[in-house]
Design brief:
Chain lengths: 111, 124
Amino acid sequence: QSILTQPPSVSGAPGQRVTISCTGSSSNIGADFDVHWYQHLPGSAPRLLIYGNIFRPSGVSERFSGSRSGASASLAITGLQSGDEADYYCHSYDNLLTAPVFGGGTRLTVL
Amino acid sequence: DVQLVESGGGLVQPGGSLRLSCAASGFHFQNARMNWVRQAPGKGLEWVGRIKAETDGATTDYAAPVRGRFLITRDDSKQTVYLQMNSLKTEDTATYFCVKNEFWPNYPEYFDYWGQGAPVTVSS
């Protein structure tokens, strides 16, 4: 059971918009710790998508955007492409565990 | 280009030891904070631990499941970070990723570069 809760899977047709939620609590996201997001294609290195809740590293498409409100955060992906099929993880900090924590991951399927 | 290349993974019996290495290039390694993150088969990502720069005392922090059994060290002359894993358990079976973190004014600092991972299997 992960400290941060993500839906196990989401899906959408090419060109559509999907969102992936990351729900925490008062000891992590709700305590004003930032949220970062990663994309992971199995067998390859995970890739940073969003840092500091809303910022995109250079080279990451504008189709990816992040937000945070209260004890939750979201990753939105617009204009879905087949190449977006991957696992997505949120990442924050928990002050009870005094450690970085990840969500359980969400598998995105492009129909 | 930043590169992180892990090595040393393999099969080890429960109770045994294994040392992973991560060779880094393409950035100022001496100033970098380096992490290990693992992924058990069919599971999500789990932070294992971190080592700060020598200028920060090369301080280490570990996740509770590995504290007291795992040790992270670094050799800046070789631009390499190590993960010494002792008293291994079957639940330590995972792919271990070497990860560089970038400084960030709020917790947690984010992970900007990851290696491809080294598989570790703990089994009799």
